[in-house]
Amino acid sequence: MLENFDRNLQKYADLIVNMWVNLQPTQRLLIRAPIEAAPLVEKVTISAYQASARLVTVIWSHDPLELARFQYAPRDSFEEFASWISDGYYQHIKDGHALLSIYAEDPDLLKEQDQKLIGIAMKTRMQKTSQFSSLLSKNAVNWNVISYPIPGWARKVFPRLSDELAVEKLWDTIFDICRIKQADPLAAWKEHVRQLVSRAGYMNQKQYTALKYSGPGTDLTLGLPENHIWLSAGFASQAGIPFIANAPTEEIFTLPHKGIGEGTIRASMPLNYGGTLIEDFSLTFKDGKVIGFTAEKGQELLKSLLDTDEGASHLGEVALVPHSSPISQSKLLFYNTLFDENAASHIALGRAYRFSLEGGVAMSEEQFASAGGNYSLAHVDFMVGNSEMNLDGITKDGKTEPVMRKGEWAFEV
Ligand code: ZN
Ligand code: ZN
């Protein structure tokens, strides 16, 4: 048992409720969680009621049930979906209540399963939950995603340890990365968020027209739309409630212009998509669209991701993370996007967040698209940053300014 485990878990729960979700006394809290996370869910529930939550409800999941479907369900049944669940989420958000997602998956869970069926199930889920995810992507309410070590995941991160030790080690790492062990985690988080917000502010003032990535296997220029907004995970909901969309968080991000992108970019880490890894891959862009790709592993799955819809072969997010971030410094590959995306600069195939464009939330689909915003059912991040990545900003009058050098910020705030 880890030293101070119970106390640290309590601090984690308190940060979730009081800062990351920032639950308000008038709100209900809906939690989705794997059943392994019950000890944390219990602490969060208590903390939520202590913060005067009106009602806390939980929707549980369990990896072996997901696996059983791929093993035993009829092969033609993967477009089935329990819509009442997504309707429930939608209603909850529409009524202005808060959402906490505890995300924990065994990255190898579906390794042996048919990639086509995984693709169909993923696409069906994205279609059936699109109403709900579009509300979330407009920050209709305060929401937060965090993680919880389960054995299948911990084993993947620490393959040489027993399950029990691997889970302990993963907890220890998460407590470090989430600043839980610091004397005053709440104060540490406030300072961290202040810094992220300052970096975003600097980039907003610059209003670069394009970003140029260079490094081994990478030479890519991406256009940025006029009036793009750099953001950090420090958001405010439509009701004005400040919250942290995901923890840990180290990134600032905006949207690229979906029609302006030339060159090739090489992923710097594997991508875990629908329970399977896509490894050693590169994408080549012309006019902002993927026109070529290679992958050492998971080529077919990458193809099915790109084929999800028209927007899935365009980009919807560019995000910057210094190579010295605590996650990167842990030198671990987490096989979990929530962590890995905060270890490195990344870009996302698919949907752009409307709030990353000035006035974007109020725009019609056509207006958003003609301003350069991408739409897709998919939004899938993959890592491109490492200690060799250089990034330049191109100003309105065509000058080139350094933004990152060897993976680190090239400007002070
Ligand atoms: Zn991101
Ligand atoms: Zn993203």
Write up what this structure looks like.
By secondary structure, the protein is of the alpha+beta class. It has 13 helices and 19 strands. The protein has helices at 5-20, 38-50, 63-72, 83-94, 115-128, 130-137, 151-157, 163-177, 185-206, 299-306, 326-329, 337-340, 365-370; strands spanning 28-34, 55-61, 98-103, 143-147, 210-215, 218-223, 234-236, 242-244, 252-254, 261-266, 271-273, 276-286, 289-297, 315-320, 346-350, 379-383, 390-394, 400-405, 408-409. The strands form four sheets. Strands 5, 6, 10, 11, 12, 13, 17, 18 and 19 form a nine-stranded antiparallel sheet that branches. α1 (5-20) packs across α2 and α7 crosses α8 (163-177). The radius of gyration is 20 Å and the shape is globular. The structure holds zinc ion (2 copies).
In short:
The protein is of the alpha+beta class and 413 residues long.
First-to-last CA distance: 41 Å
How would you characterize the largest beta sheet? 9 strands, antiparallel
Radius of gyration: 20 Å
Structural class given helices, strands, pairing?
alpha+beta
Q: What percentage of amino acids are in beta strands?
A: 25-35%
Work out the helix count: 13
